[in-house]
Amino acid sequence: MSKSPRDVVLIDGWRTPFAKAGTKLQKVHPADLGKMALKELIQKTNLDVKLVDEVIIGNTGNPSDAVNIARVVALNAGIPKEKSAYTVHRNCASALESISQGYEKIRSGTMDVILAGGTESMSQMPPLYTQRFIDLYSNLAMAKTAGQRVSALLAILKADFLQIKEFLTTPPLKATAHKPRISIMEGLTDPFVGINMGDTAEILAKEFGLSREEQDQFALRSHQLAIKAKNAGIYKEEILNYPLPPDFKEVLAEDIGPRDGQSMEALKKLKPMFDRSGTGTITAGNACPITDGAAMVLMMSRERAESLGYKPMARVVSYGFAGLDPERMGLGPVYATPVALKRAGLSLKDMGRVELNEAFAAQVLACQKAFDSAQFAKEKLGLSEKVGELRSEILNVNGGAIAIGHPVGATGTRLVITLMKEMRRSSQQYGLATLCIGGGQGGAMILEREV
Asked: Tens digit of pLDDT for each residue in 343-357?
């Protein structure tokens, strides 16, 4: 490995435990999740915060009380107010985007020390009032006489009654004139093609001939590997202890997601969530759960890291993003990986470990088939040969998002952290972190282990 002063190196990375939405982290603001991850990273690396050039954080939920959440996180974590911070949003790859932007700034010589990552509370993505309710409350606010105020209040009470009636008589997620819109469901629905991310996985399952049993087997593998890694203490190398508010007496030290004792029998009992025609195969068991969490990394130029006495874990070799059909967004890794490989001058067979985000079992299995298909490479990617075989023995060896979870704005950094620490444990030279992106994109990043 030839070294350059402007190499972009990763010093360390840590994350909060990931918790299923509605569980232990449901009342924790995403800015607090990010603050905790960033403060702990700073402490564990003994970083002088005066040396930080910028903070870049991914987030998709964009809370109204912390619109530029990166700035809020940075200040609360002790970064001096003179240092800039900004938030990036690329759906599922927001936290990978934060690292790629840090890479460009360091590589160009513009900056030397960047804190990057992502934070997300999917529990706190709010319900949204319908336009009908907004108009009613606007009328109340604008009422000038007692009579107008009474009329406006009566209209709101009538609407509230209809809302309760609709809650009791319509399916939970069915939109009506008075029920609030569920923002997280809208966010997981592609505005271009009008279908949920789960429906895109159903498309891939059918097109690639993936059975329900294959998908459930992959989901079972994810849980089993995650539990094995937890029992071996592997995740203690990346997960911080998180004292839970309000009294901070209980400490969350593990992900809430991996299920010890998960079985095919239990998975088989689950009903399809999206295609209920009788041919659907995507269930809550073979899809990633909605999740809360944050993850952060410390990035530096090689020359600055050496001058400060840091021993980096990995070098960022290259990254790549690519677009594809929104209704087949799950194949994003197959489109983005060749871009990153070409920039790195490497091939898929050079990768010793691969972290591919498990949005859905069908999506990962479809990617494996597409990676290994010369026909797909020629017709869809314009390549003369297949990208290569993505062997299961190097893929998500400590489990993936089906077990761990997928806090959308944080996952990209989680993949990089998991990858670089696994590469160090297993002495692998190169590794790939890649994921699909809602809206029809893919992202990929290649790391080289520092020795």
From this structure: 999 999 999 999 999
